[in-house]
Amino acid sequence: MKKIDIHAHFFPRITQAEAGRLDPARAPWLQVDAGGERGNIMAGDSAFRPVNRPLWDPAARIEDLDATGVQTQIISATPIMFAYRYEARATAQWAARMNDLALEHCAYRPARLKALAQVPLQDIELACLEASRAKAAGHVGVQIGNHLGPRDLDDDHLVQFLTHCANEAIPVLVHPWDMMTDGRMKKWMLPWLVAMPAETQLSILSLVLSGAFERIPASLKLCFAHGGGSFAFLLGRAENAWHCRDIVREDCPQPPSAYLERFHVDSAVFDPRALRLLVDVMGVERVMLGSDHPFPLGEQQIGALVETSEWLDDAQRARICAGNASAFFGIDA
């Protein structure tokens, strides 16, 4: 079965000196050990996350894809690369450099590796310029963080960017980052396990309940990572609230379920029961294979969840594994 993995990350092998041109104290760079197999994403002098070779080495990435039967993978920035906190023009230069390096990564096997661009989201003009430049250079879409400081996706600034992407036929993947926490989630990767799904649900509902979807062209191709977070499981709660409380529906002319056709989600939910609920809620035509490769919290055997879910028929598996992504991004496996 053909497989297109739409949710995978990369981090280029940049030095501390190169990152230091953005910010010598906190900008991310890659430290690789002597054996070349493992490394650390660094933030200035501090270790941020241990990583392994497929993150930066396209040959190792292709080995992983061959081992799991994936024909095509779409890579995107590791979210620490977003650089939304910095001055916009410096971030624009950084984003352009990271986007060029992403295309260099994909050039190793251009038929099998595709890239999503990052943009300086803090400046709408620069973000739109880089999104369009990246599309012309060969990127198949953009990846953005799910918020910009206190601004959620319903903010006029971010709605303008999404509208630009709709008008320019640039698909958008929304990825959670900078997860909400007040310090109570100290251990066990709880920000990733609790706050990350909540961030994604917050992003979807901010677009729905604010009426932002009414202002964004319906042509926008929009996808949320990690199965849309907790959205599918809690849609009933939002639906009930819309019907029962005028404060919930005051800016939203239709119930939340009416907006399901406005976005896609990936399949990175790791449990067949969760996948079944996700497909029941979203529809098989709006779920695409996503792995979060090559991170430890990703699906280690890419596509296994979809392939082994016996309640899906062959045609449904084919849609989730490749067909939906092919149409969404305009690519073939």
UniProtKB/TrEMBL annotation:
EC number: 4.1.1.45
Gene3D superfamilies registered for this protein in UniProt: Metal-dependent hydrolases
Chain ranges of the Amidohydrolase-related domain: 4-331
InterPro entries on file: ACMSD, Amidohydro-rel, Metal_Hydrolase
GO molecular function: aminocarboxymuconate-semialdehyde decarboxylase activity
Keywords annotated in UniProt: Decarboxylase, Lyase, Metal-binding, Zinc
Biochemical pathway: Secondary metabolite metabolism; quinolate metabolism
Family: Belongs to the metallo-dependent hydrolases superfamily. ACMSD family.
Subunit structure: Monomer.
Name of this protein: 2-amino-3-carboxymuconate-6-semialdehyde decarboxylase
Species annotation: Caballeronia udeis
